[in-house]
Design a protein that fits this description.
It comes from Rhynchospora breviuscula. InterPro entries: DUF3754 (IPR022227). This protein has 484 residues and is α+β, with helices and mostly antiparallel strands. The chain is built from 17 helices and ten strands. The strands form three sheets. It has a five-stranded antiparallel β-sheet. Strands 4-1-5 form a three-stranded antiparallel β-sheet. The relative contact order is 0.16.
Length: 484
């Protein structure tokens, strides 16, 4: 319960992505249902199949090249295959850069974005289930593979760690956890008391100087309950902001954190004299909370007490001992005051120790969970999944844009973009930043749209569009099966 003015919400503002969050079968069935005439509906369903078969054929050779290259750099099976090729080091360097070129193009086509420093700062500005500082053992990671690629293929907003590993992310979701959180609440109470003590003694200005990140301010906002506009806002609900009441402390609480629906990490381990390693690791995760993004980091160090934990521990011991000596030197030393000081000192030291042990256990459980529940696949399996994902996204873009032109007539690219987004919102209750330019390029490549004298786009009739694309190999095979 909040008295007086309602407490401000902690929300994260995120840009809408270009990925279309609708299953292709559901999309096609719904759009076909909206077509009035049965003959047009039949032609539309035929067009959808021909569009998919054609786009799949466009990418087939490109995907085969990428998969063949990856077979040389597969961490599990690639070593022996690479040795049999008898390639020079220079030739291997060229092949691995060719693989990365194919891979990054595929990630772009499937609407993945690289995680930036700004997003890392926003993610680390809060805690969710993971309460330990996780660091990467950079000595175990190769620094040449990715730095060479980015030198030849510059990218904007690359994070500081991009020479060692790259994290891609796509899609936004919400994760909620309900529990009693007794240890976390105890830790929060002691931390608030400790913070109050530091403020009163002015020690916080010496040991805890806050650094304000301008980039973080752009991403994290506090809102007074007003409805967000066209931006995508996701609220963070954390124990740190909880009111100290009997109900909150003794009952169950629900915390909430925005998640990245899909995350992919790419890296190579550092070579050693005894074991040269050309393997390129590609790991795929799902539903990773932003504040726990460290779960996907490669080659993590085992967590330990931080220097700040030790500083707080030593300061508390010194202050406790000084207070204890001062009490004993008083003419009438009160034994209960001495006991209270010693109890408080022992309690705080125990809090640091048991909090760390609890966090370590949580960390181990989260790592196990990320390996078995949240890691979708790795290596070749991830690449095959992404290849199909690219095709599905491309097909959905073409189908939606053609349907809009067919039902609503001529449109400029800007109008078509708006109409496609409105259709997705009205018919499916979802929002996305529709990639209209990519969709129009594919429509023109298929030859089923044209432009008028002032540049407006219009589609050819369904029957004509099907004739232009023509029967696909899949259709010929299916027809042959039916006649045998």
């Amino acid at each position: 319960m909040a008295s007086g003015k309602e407490k401000k919400k902690d929300v994260v503002r995120l840009e809408r992505e270009s990925v279309i969050p609708i299953l292709k079968p559901k999309l096609i069935i719904k759009l076909a249902y909206l077509i009035e005439h049965d003959s047009d509906r039949s032609e539309f369903l035929k067009l959808c199949k021909r569009v998919e078969y054609t786009i799949r054929a466009w990418y087939l050779l490109q995907f085969e090249d990428m998969m063949e290259l990856y077979s040389l750099f597969d961490p599990v099976y690639g070593g022996p295959i690479l040795e049999k090729q008898n390639l020079s080091l220079e030739e291997i360097d060229v092949l691995e850069q060719n693989f990365l070129t194919h891979f990054f193009k595929m990630m772009e086509k499937s609407n993945f974005n690289t995680v930036t420093n700004e997003e890392i700062e926003v993610a680390q500005s809060a805690q969710y289930l993971l309460h330990l500082p996780i660091k990467v053992n950079e000595s175990k990671l190769d620094k040449n593979l990715l730095s060479t690629y980015f030198k030849d293929h510059p990218h904007e907003n690359l994070p500081d760690f991009s020479d060692k590993y790259v994290i891609f992310r796509r899609g936004i979701g919400i994760d909620r956890t309900t529990d009693y959180f007794f240890m976390e609440k105890l830790d929060m109470i002691i931390s608030r008391i400790w913070s109050w003590f530091l403020r009163k003694t002015m020690l916080d200005k010496i040991f805890f100087r806050k650094k304000t990140s301008k980039k973080q301010v752009k991403k994290t906002h506090e809102m007074d309950g007003e409805e967000p506009g066209d931006e995508l806002y996701v609220e963070r609900i954390r124990l740190e902001n909880m009111d100290l009441s009997i109900g909150n402390l003794l009952g169950k609480n629900t915390i909430q954190e925005p998640t990245f629906d899909r995350m992919i990490v790419v890296y190579r381990r550092a070579e050693t004299e005894s074991k040269p390693d050309r393997g390129i690791y590609v790991k795929h995760f799902k539903n990773i909370p932003m504040a726990d993004m460290e779960l996907v980091l490669p080659e993590k160090k085992t967590p330990s007490l931080t220097p700040m934990d030790w500083v707080q521990f030593l300061i508390s011991v010194v202050i406790g001992l000084v207070t204890l000596v001062s009490s004993l030197e008083m003419p009438k030393a009160d034994i209960w005051v001495v006991v209270a000081i010693l109890s408080a000192l022992a309690g705080y030291c125990a809090k640091i120790y048991f909090s760390f042990q609890q966090n370590m256990e949580t960390y181990k459980n989260l790592i196990t969970k990320s390996m078995y529940d949240k890691q979708l696949d790795s290596g070749r399996g991830t690449l095959l999944h992404l290849c199909d994902d690219v095709i599905q996204q491309e097909v959905k873009e073409v189908i939606i844009s053609y349907f809009i032109l067919m039902e609503q007539g001529k449109a400029t690219p800007t109008d078509l973009d708006l109409r496609c987004e409105e259709l997705i919102q009205e018919e499916f209750g979802m929002r996305c930043n529709f990639d209209v330019h990519d969709a129009v390029q594919k429509l023109e490549r298929l030859g089923i749209v044209q432009r008028d004298s002032i540049g407006r786009i219009y589609c050819l009739p369904l029957k004509t569009a099907n004739e232009i694309i023509g029967p696909t190999t899949e259709e010929v095979v299916l027809k042959a099966r039916q006649t045998t």
